[in-house]
Design a protein that fits this description.
150 residues; mainly alpha; 2 domains; 3-stranded antiparallel beta sheet; 5 helices
């Protein structure tokens, strides 16, 4: 990962966010954590320089949304200043259905991946690493199922 200059960073920030997001702290390198301000949603937030201008959708700033989860899905809605309770309820209801469907699909994919890894004789440590979960969870499941001894 080659470091970019301050000017390159600012140009890229301007290109992606069209002037709505400004850096409030000094750019040192791509790995530094910076404070940003979004003029549209009036939010001040932290982010790594490389992620906030990167290519992964879940790390980019979206007004009204926090960062994403491990699967790239956004978390719950964050209210903008001045949003009414009714507007928030409408947004939440609209997004709950979509999030529920995405969660079901994510769980189904993870389950399929888990059983595929078990079938291919992966150790519980390798499975945990692949699925990015705590190895103790997989180990406990294997013990309950009689796949390994305590």
């Amino acid at each position: 990962m080659a470091d970019m200059t301050k000017e390159q960073f600012e140009t890229r920030l301007e290109t992606i966010y069209k002037g709505e997001v400004q850096a409030l702290t000094k750019y040192l390198n791509q790995r530094c954590t910076m404070v940003f301000h979004c003029s549209e949603c009036k939010t001040v937030f932290f982010g790594k320089a490389s992620l906030i201008i990167g290519t992964k959708e879940q790390f980019l700033h979206k007004c009204g949304f926090p960062y994403g989860d491990i699967d790239g899905n956004r978390f719950h809605i964050v209210p903008k200043r001045g949003d009414s309770t009714e507007a928030l309820k409408k947004k939440a209801k609209k997004n709950t259905v979509k999030e529920g469907q995405k969660q079901k699909e994510s769980i189904a994919l993870r389950s399929k991946k888990f059983y595929e890894l078990v079938w291919n004789d992966y150790t519980y440590q390798k499975i945990a690493k692949e699925l990015q979960v705590n190895p103790q969870i997989i180990k406990d499941h294997f013990i309950r199922e009689g796949l390994i001894n305590k």
